[in-house]
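Lab notebook, bench 4. Still working through the backlog of constructs that have no structural model yet. Next entry is a single chain of 291 residues. Request: give me the structure tokens for it.
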Amino acid sequence: GLSQYSSDPRTEWDLSTYSTRDQVLEAVRSLRYKGGNTFTGLALTHVLEQNLKPEAGARLEAEKLVILLTDGKSQDDANLAAQTLKNLGIEILAIGVKNADEAELKQVASEPLELTVYNVLDFPLLSSLVSRLTRVLCTRIKEKSNKENADIPMNTGPQLNPTDLKISAVTSKSMHLTWSPPLRPPKKYRVVYYPSKGGIPKEVVLDGAISSLQLFNLTSHTEYLVSVVPVYDTVVGDALRGVTSTLPLSPPRSLRVSELSHNSIRLSWTPAQGATQYLVLCSAAPNGAED
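Model written out:
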């Protein structure tokens, strides 16, 4: 499977899309480069929520490996997202090109770092890593597969997935989220929210016994995307998603003009809720316009 990312991750193909090597190579040759920002944390969250799901071709009994290829420093918290994957037993290899931050690569990658972190000066040099990466990946899969497998819940649905996300008490700066927990309470919830037109994703981690959250310090008059992800010891449930817009800031109302003189006027208005200051602008009306 392969996803590209900038400020909005995009799945190019799922694990189940192609079944032969030639098909994959042809898909790579046809790939269109996606320029833009470097939101690595959002990309890792996308991979977890979208690409490592049974409906995307991920087999619950199979080992999971993610290869991160980046040429820059992340503009969001890549470490937090990477830790979530690693806590679920997902192996991460980090490959940096050109301006990648090596310290960040080492934070994101799984141990041992001498096998999972690579850095090259330019894209053509990636070819020098292929044979070594192949050996490392195959060896890691065999090692992990030979360990005693933990019991992995095979039932997704009401057993593992929350339902009925409700967004209420929406203001210009806040909103309240509630949801119905799954039959089996998760270890924790990851709540991710960000403006739909682009912005740095923010994340709140809650104990699995909690099923509500108040979001503060939001931007007014903005559409937000919200995801509630249940996290278990050995598996992640499906994300529960919602979208809503914060209210615009309250305007002042009922502007009134009084006490006119040859060089002054008095203005009065009904206050705007929450306003701490007002900016008053005035200019002479053009000739012929209404006073």
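Notes after review: The CA atoms of residues 221 and 248 lie 4 Å apart. The helical segments are 21-29, 40-51, 78-87, 102-108, 113-116, 130-146. Flag for follow-up if needed.
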